[in-house]
Amino acid sequence: KAITSLVGNIKSADATNRCGIHVHVNVRDLTMKQLSDVYTLYYLMEDMFFTYSGSRSASCFCVPTPAYKVTKLAQAAERQRPVFGADFFTKYDALNLLPVGEKGSIEFRHHYATTRKETIVDWANLVANLVNFVRTNRLEESLGVIDTFNWVRDINTVSNYDQVIGLFEELGEHKYEVPLAARERFRSSIRRRVYLFKLETTQ
Questions:
Q1: Most-buried pick from 37, 50, 118, 121 (CB within 10 A)?
Q2: How far is Cα of residue 150 from the mean position of the Cα atoms in its chain?
Q3: How far is Cα 112 from Cα 62, in angstroms, rounded to an integer?
């Protein structure tokens, strides 16, 4: 309803490449472990998030996630020690965790500017579904994952990579289907991200 009202009131607005859509998702009720799980799942699927939102990965206002931030948050969650300060995260991170302390939300900064209601709603549902997937413990129920940290380290087969791609499609309610021609590119992306994740955890 809010998006319908907003779009209805900005019919004369122009969406330019100087704009973007930032979506905040409430995470006040998540534990540190759940928040870390959201961040880790997102990290694995980040290239798909960028691809299906208009690919702002080259923008200095939407910076991709390095593996060390993911592993550090996971380790902090295990010790129950928050790491949401500006000395670690920045407001220009594509998935910005700085608002957790002030607003109780995380911010997805990826999407290109548009006034098309359906596009905005589909994107908002995708990012909200990622958080709800973890919130409702479906990580264990759907994927059989209890220890996310070690699960990522063990991802090493085509079926594992396709499982991650399938999860992205499920979260997007199949509005963001990955065509066969693109699957190998995303498998390679996941493979590289797992490799970098392992490097960080063995140092």
A1: 37
A2: 19
A3: 11
Crossing angle of helices 158-171 and 32-51, rounded to 10°? 90
Q: Which residue has the tokens 């359906």?
A: 118
38-73 residue pLDDT tens = 999 999 999 999 988 876 766 788 899 999 999 989
Position 136, amino acid: T
- Residue 129 near residue 173 (C-beta atoms within 8 A): yes
Q: Which of 40, 36, 33 is nearest to 190 (CA)?
A: 40
**Structure-token pair, residue 76:** 């902090």
Which residues 6+ apart lie within 8 Å of 146 measured at CB? 140
**Can you give the pTM of this predicted structure?**
0.89
Give the count of alpha carbons within 13 A of 115, CB side only.
12
